[in-house]
């Protein structure tokens, strides 16, 4: 979704065909179609019907926050999770599990600082303290 929205954001005022989006994102058309359906349901893109139809962004790139996008698409799944299941007897006290939980919070905090516009313009490493 990030790659697709970045491709679309570079041409944010234009209608782009599914074929072009797939090609420029380096994804297959069937995969791109599925992602586009999900993005359309969530309001990130709008479909335009007709012979010159395709898709257009439903929001400005600067208003598409990475953390919100991932939450919308992933239903708040953890980015990094314990390899053991919750039936593990030490799950709530396990240092690995607790560290993974903190890592997820830290990653989400970084994601909150970025929008699709950042992917279009390039990374500002100072934004996350890596300058």
Please give a quick description of this structure:
Helices cover 47% and strands 6% of the residues.
Q: Would you give an account of this structure?
A:
The protein has six helices and two strands. By secondary structure, the protein is mainly alpha-helical. It has a two-stranded antiparallel ribbon with strand order 1-2. The model has no long low-confidence stretch (mean pLDDT 85). The radius of gyration is 18 Å and the shape is elongated. Strand 1 (45-48) and strand 2 form a beta hairpin. The longest helix is centred in the last third of the chain and has 17 residues, at 95-111. Helices cover 47% and strands 6% of the residues. The chain has two domains: 2-57, Winged helix-like DNA-binding domain superfamily/Winged helix DNA-binding domain (Arc Repressor Mutant, subunit A, Orthogonal Bundle); 65-114, no CATH class.
Task: Name some characteristics of this structure.
single chain, 131 residues, mainly alpha, Arc Repressor Mutant, subunit A, 2 domains, two-stranded antiparallel ribbon, 2 strands
């Amino acid at each position: 979704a990030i790659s697709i929205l970045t491709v679309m954001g570079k041409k944010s005022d234009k209608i782009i065909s599914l074929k072009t989006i797939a090609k420029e994102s380096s994804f297959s058309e069937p995969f791109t179609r599925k992602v586009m359906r999900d993005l359309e349901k969530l309001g990130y893109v709008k479909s335009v019907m007709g012979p010159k139809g395709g898709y257009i962004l439903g929001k400005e790139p600067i208003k598409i926050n990475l953390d919100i996008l991932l939450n919308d698409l992933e239903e708040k799944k953890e980015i990094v999770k314990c390899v053991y299941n919750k039936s593990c007897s030490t799950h709530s006290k396990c240092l690995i599990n607790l560290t993974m939980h903190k890592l997820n919070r830290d990653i989400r905090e970084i994601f909150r600082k970025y929008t699709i516009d950042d992917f279009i313009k390039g990374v500002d490493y100072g934004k996350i303290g890596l300058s």
